[in-house]
Amino acid sequence: MSSGTYLSSDDSALLRSALSRYAGEVCLEMGAGNGGGLIALSKSFRLTVGTDLQRPSDLGGIGEKVNFVLADAASCFREGSFDLVTFNPPYLPSEEIADRTVDGGEDGEAVTLRFLADAMRVSKREGDLVVLLSSENPLGPIERMCTEKGFSMNLLVKKHLFYETLSVYEIARIESGR
Question: Which of 3, 80, 118, 150 is disulfide-compatible with 74, CB 3.0–4.6 A?
Answer without folding.
Answer: 118
